[in-house]
Amino acid sequence: MRLHIGSRLRSRRWPAATAAVVAATGVVLATQIAFADTAFSATFEDGTTSGWSKSGGTWSVVTDGNKVLQQSNAGSENAREFAGDSGWTNYTVQASVKPLTLGSGGFAGLLARSTSATTYYRLALLPGNTVQLQAVNSGSVTVLGSASRTVATGTWHTLSITVNGSSVSGAVDGTTVGTATNTSITKGRIGLQTAYSTANFDNVTVTTGGTNPTPSSSSSPPSSPSPSASASTSPSTSQPPSSALYVASNGTAGAAGTQASPTTLASAITRVTTGGTIFMRGGTYSQSSTITIAAGNNGTSGATKNITAYPGETPVLNFSAQSEDPANRGLAVNGNYWRVSGIVVERAGDNGIFVGGSNNVFERVVTRFNRDSGLQISRTASDTPKAQWPANNLVISSESHDNADSDGEDADGFAAKLTVGTGNVFRYTVSHNNIDDGWDLYTKTDTGAIGPVTIQDSLSYNNGTLSNGTVNTNGDRNGYKLGGEDIGVNHVVQRSIAYHNGHHGFTYNSNPGSMTISNNLSIDNAERNFSFDAGTSTYRNNTSCRYSSGGSNDKTIGNTDSSNQFWTGTNGSRCSTYSGALAWSFAADGHLVVTLGGRTVSL
């Protein structure tokens, strides 16, 4: 799976060589995470279909609340778009599908294991409130499963196909259509299709498998402070327990919360017991109000309360109905000892995920297109006692991008700012293309110093410029902004990368504290790669490189030695290793793999 700077398509693909990349890296996750990997995703928010190949029909990106891919030719007998890798074998492909018209003999559907334009598995929405799982071989159709479901034009449906060996199964809106054994198609790409119909498509994801072997784990985890919430008890990709609560995009608050009768997330949060799990089925959850885990709704250190994606599916909490307002957050986690895994939170009127509680874990989450910082740790109210400020939260193997507020001054990728307690950690996290900063650890004089924050093995790039090219000159545009208001806080930043950010890579931002800045890499940020004008910080084994024109010499004040290679007009010897295009992925165990020019970065 690679993301190349400058590519406009928001999709990621794992090459077969990923296992070798993972084995070579020195960046490892402290504990194994059994979790479905996202091998590919596309939301079409960049406005293009680059990376997809068309066969028939009239395809274009249009606005339907968000940007979506539309097939608009109702007379086309076979309109298809294909993506992915012809060598993919075992995976789940999921997409949101809205049929606009369904002609006689027509359908709108999702494809898996496509080996040609006429051979694949297909899950089809048909006229007459019917859905079918089919094997299509050289145009010949075999029905593997069929069910009666309400198929309404103008309504979004979530379709998913899982292929694993000879097993093929399909589900619509979280309910299984059919499961069959079929050996006719063993590998292939994904696709979207209509016949004599028109439809919109969005939120395409491929999870768990493809051609990716599981990388070997490391026996030497990085040394770091660890939140008291353990990172070792994460959901498995096996079938969830029947005792869990289930929610779905079409769930109702009063429903039982079973797989057959799913409830809503807001209702499940009030019902889940200590140690219990809420499984979110895939699809888009259109929300207009903040979903809140209230203070006092707590798990325990040995039995967290859990919200996790159903195995192989991607739930998307969409708050586009909210106006931009500090009161309009997406998911507010004010309780303690919760674990949130595998969900996407987008388009909230303020923070996508707000963390006011302590001892929580957020893993494999994506926050995007929100109108303040994607994920922010901060106290819940101005009168919250300091002893209750959020502490010991872990954000791990997560991504935050394209968050933007209207004035361009506040929307960062990740933030722990204003007032937070001690022990908050960001690890294996990626922040990019946010309108303001990648990370913001801003402290205010009227609230007192925040607790030290640790950032490890993370990546910050292209902040200050959205993926669509938008720039707001009010934004600070730094990779890692580490302070504010001349208050000293002893943050720790280790083995992290700042690349092509719109101002500084790493900056003290008026933090005169004794920070630990070690084994970091900063490349081609617009002003300084490292900018520290005060303090007594310690710098070890940092590398600064500049391959493009512009920018200023690095500046550091504090304890430096010859292990650093800062930029003062020329590149040091280590910079020959770090030239070339940036790519990144999350390995199967959750740790971050970064390559530059095809070479794995080990810091």
TrEMBL record:
Keywords in alphabetical order: Calcium, Lyase, Metal-binding, Secreted, Signal
Coiled-coil segments on the chain, per record: none
Subcellular location: Secreted
InterPro entries listed in its UniProt record: AL/BT2_dom (IPR010496), ConA-like_dom_sf (IPR013320), Pectin_lyas_fold (IPR012334), Pectin_lyase_fold/virulence (IPR011050), Polysaccharide_Lyase_9 (IPR052052)
All residue ranges annotated as the 3-keto-alpha-glucoside-1,2-lyase/3-keto-2-hydroxy-glucal hydratase domain in the record: 42-206
Cofactor(s) needed: Ca(2+)
Similarity remark: Belongs to the polysaccharide lyase 9 family.
Principal localisation: secreted
One MF term in the entry's GO annotations: hydrolase activity
Region Disordered, annotated ranges: 206-246
Any GO CC annotation of this UniProt entry: extracellular region
Protein name per the record: 3-keto-alpha-glucoside-1,2-lyase/3-keto-2-hydroxy-glucal hydratase domain-containing protein
Signal peptide range: 1-36
Stretches with biased composition (Low complexity): 213-244
